[in-house]
Fold:
Amino acid sequence: MSKRTGTKRKAAEAAETKAKRARGETDLSDGLKWSQHGEVMKGVCPLMALTSPTLPGSEKVVGFDIDFTVIKTASGRKFAQGSSDWEWWDECVPQKLRDLNAQGYRVIFFTNQAGIEKLKAKPEDIMKKVEDMIAELAIPVLCFVCTGNNHYRKPSTAMWDFFVENANGGVKVDLSKCKYVGDAAGRAKDWAPGKPKDFSCSDRKFAANIGIGFATPEEFFLGEKPPPFEWGCPDPNQYLKNNKPPPGSKDFIAKTQELVMMVGCPASGKSTFRKRYFEPHGYTAINRDTLGTMDKCLKACKEALSKGKSVIVDNTNPREDARQPFTQLAKKQGIQCRCFVMNTPVELAKHMNYVRQNQTNGEVRRIPEVGYNVYKKGFSAPTKKEGFSDIVQIDFIPKFDSKSDETLFKQWTSVER
Structure:
């Protein structure tokens, strides 16, 4: 075979391997095979999973983040320059992972790779890197990759839940025998001499949400003592300390036709409030998320009012000029217009933003940070001079429709100060 022919064959084999990885058809030892899960968003599936139908399940699991936990860039850069730009985080890492496997632990990688959704990283590069790591380890390792800012992203437990439900051979995991290791641990700048601040606390939160132990790479591999850390946001459980009973519909419903306008930042609870207290009493809901444009909202509002129905508008409505067309409609109709202001703290609203994404399994994507910045920049507090007959302040009072909703609310999310 000529050198040129051999080069062409290698190129063809590489192209075929790349195509198989993209299709999730790469076969590895121990029956390990890639698969993709969830509805395609922005051209990629939200979850890539490397699992095996033949590996026995284990009640003992040690999970690891990948970047700067089990490996680091060989180039010394913050982000890898291709699938081959890696080396073990420390020379002791490979044998430590092999020892865990020998002791009956299932070794698993759980990693956030938002660069895939942002088109800054290629799925096949991540797959190749993981495959090369496993080949060098010579032990079976499962891997779960969240490809963007979706409901699988740590600290959400969705990747762990997927493993337990679909990739552990039906064996029940004993949480007391499990641990997660990661570098996103909430450590402050100079937690060790010259060390930078951790970019987040998401790995520590991930372990806490699952209910398993946590360690940093330094603690787990090198035996160092745990340094101080901060969660980076309020504990969601602190918002449940308000024991005030939730109000009833009778506290809000008018006896005559009216127009109600909601004011509140994204995910502050407007829609839940509307559905719980107003819609059951025949109020027509006007929502820009559903109707698309302000013109369509105004048109729908006019039609409902002309039929004698009460209306509730639950857009964010931060500015007076956004509220004015509706107050004028109420005035023209000769009915009262009340304003309900959601006093939900912004950090809590951001938390519920993530909770909503997790509740809907990603069907409702979280509002990006810019949405809160735009709301804050344009906000002006409503006054009666605008034409409101009353302005009602609504404080956050916890009330859950199911136990699963309460459990999700109590989990740490990606909110960081």
